[in-house]
Amino acid sequence: MPVSHSIDAAASAPKVTFAPETPSMDNELPLRGHRKRASDSNNILAAANSPMKRSISTPVVSSPAMISSEQVADFEKQRQSLVMMTTYIASAIQEKRRGDPIKFEELIAQLTVTKPSPLSPTKMLQWIQALSQCISLLDKSCVDLIEAMLQIDWLIQEDVFVQYYMSFLGNVVSAHAFYVVPVQSMLVQKLTHRYKPMVTGDTPVISREIQHERVHQALKYILGLIPTGATSLFPLLAHEFPHKRESIYAHTVYVKNILRVLEYAPVLRTQILGLVIDRIIQVDVEIQVELEELEDSDTEVAYDFDTADDDDERDISDDSDSDSDDDSDSGSDSDGVQVAVLDIKKMTKKLDGMLFLVFSYLEGYVNSCRHLPTPNGRMPAPVEELFLVLLQIFMGTILQTFKSRHTQFILFYIVSLSPQFSDYFLGALGTKILDKSQPEVIRVSAAAYMSSFVSRAKYLDIRQVLMVIDMLGNFVLELVAKVDTGSNVLPDADRYAVFYAVVQALMYIFCFRWRVLEVGAENKIRSSKDDFDSAGMIVGSMDSPDVNSSHRGTGRQWHSGLNSLQRVVTSRLNPLKMCSSNVVKQFARISQSLDFMYIYPILEQNKKIYIPRHAARPDSDLLGAGGSNRNGAGANGNGNPTVGGQLPHELETFFPFDPYRLRRSAPFMQGIYQEWESEEDDEDDEDEDEYDEDDAGEEEYEEEEDDELQGIGRHSGSMNSEDEEDEDDDEEAEMNKSIMAMSISPSPAHFLVQGMTGHK
């Protein structure tokens, strides 16, 4: 008789239906224990003839009297069939070892047959039971057989089948550790959107969600048997992560599943969160690059990412492999632009969906720890550990990535949970700023993060704001004292980049936080005077010759840490010329209206000064930034605008916590994010329309409220450099539109220039 016929005869058995009451995945059967491995085929046969455990074909009975003679006969046939299949497997393996692989190859062919029809679930289950009797023989020489078993579409079978298959996987990895990686690889692949089981008319309807839950159950079971398996699991998870250009569904499905792994593999928290954040930031930066390329083109385009589309409402776990974005304008003259905008739209939704999942994970994890003890008012230990993990990822990845627009809000959210976290975060940024051994670009980035965070974090208390002002003020004051010693000192954006970044940070913070920087703020906001005493004394208006008198009748007095600004802005380093014009203009307007400082004459004088954008970088300087070798860029200023490259041109307007506009994940910012409020909103403010003849040039910089409500952060087209008046008007309009939300980072991701028309 041909070998293939003998296999079929051995595997044949009366048709058996699944038990009417199969166990659910929520109440899974105890997985089968690991049997004592037989050392040879005789022991295997003896084990096969021993009384068998309850199998998928064994009905549930309450007493022997309920078993009919026909059932007894069926049971006996099944037992004999299982014995024959076990004998055949053992024989095939032994013959392969002796150099005759025919039976072994026939066995693999039997398990992998797809035409004319695959094996039925009942017959496949019998093979699984038979192979479970031969676990000790399945060494490395049987790798092809194991691979065939790993190709079975077990996720779409009945629960009992799934339990036996998972038990088989556990037996294999327990007996032979070298199968851990192939088994884990098979499981991880099934967590992606690419896995599509072969469904037939008789296949049970098993949702994708249940399939993924079964995979997680199997991974958890494997890691419980082989704890060291986590080491090999993470590279597999990283390898299967979708490319940044893959669909929204591909990313959200995988991010949801990979975060689910953390529930039973917490040892991988740092690696998995680092991986997810790294992939999120790649999409984030890609959006900024695409936006800049559009803005640099000769076509004016627009897309409002706050606009809701029908597919925005689709749940991220929906079983769909395509993005339902329609391009209905394919016949227009601006096809290329519309395709680019549509691509940005998809990437933005992709970013939004992934961040929503990360925020949801953090929220769920924190809520799950609220019942834990919190000594001395601190957060529970697991939450503190999570924060430290995210802070480490921030310092190692996010801080070192220029043009990240939304990813950093992961830290913004987790820091909001505790004032202690705010202290740690500010302390880490301050250390970077003051550390002269750090690359200059990192120090500048840290200053930008500190200023934006202090300005936007609604949950900061007065003590923390004043401590930052003192630290930054002392830094710039000390440097001016060392540098501004002679008439030969000139502004230099390259040499003193950190200095200008810190001065800009002080001005930016003042624009947002001036209410808590004046005397008496402690009575309005906090009742604890100790917070102010710990940060420094309070002094009067900096324009006032007497700290106890007012310069223009307002009587405002200011925190002593702001003393540095008066000395710094009048120094020969001229930060008002080198810092962002938008920040400088807004600072000039607010500081004048508050009688804090009057700097319009300096701004008028600066209009006559020309300073080249790129100067030769010296080999050393007082900031400890080092020469071109340290930053990895030559004196010509060419380099990669990330860590290790020369400071990017746009860095002066980089404020990483600009308004958060991603629609789905935005609710996580509610209650913790400070929107821009102009000083006109305060009931004690003066009327801005008052005109002083001594304030020459001030009117040019005044804001119009109606203009502020239009097109926040709008990027204008190219300006006519031959018409100086038009250029000034464009600059003023740019400042008017951006300052309302103080959203002055380059290429904000939530909009482009309004209008979908081309121009030349």
Automatic annotation (TrEMBL):
Bias kind Gly residues: ranges: 624-637
Compositionally biased intervals (Acidic residues): 302-332, 676-709, 721-733
Any Gene Ontology CC annotation: nucleus
UniProt GO BP: transcription initiation at RNA polymerase I promoter
Domain of life where this protein originates: Eukaryota
InterPro entries: RNA_pol_I_trans_ini_fac_RRN3
Alphabetized GO MF terms: RNA polymerase I core binding; RNA polymerase I general transcription initiation factor activity
Annotated spans, Disordered: 1-40, 302-335, 621-649, 676-760
Family designation: Belongs to the RRN3 family.
The name this protein goes by in its record: RNA polymerase I-specific transcription initiation factor RRN3
Species in which this protein is naturally found: Linnemannia gamsii
Phylogenetic lineage: Eukaryota, Fungi, Fungi incertae sedis, Mucoromycota, Mortierellomycotina
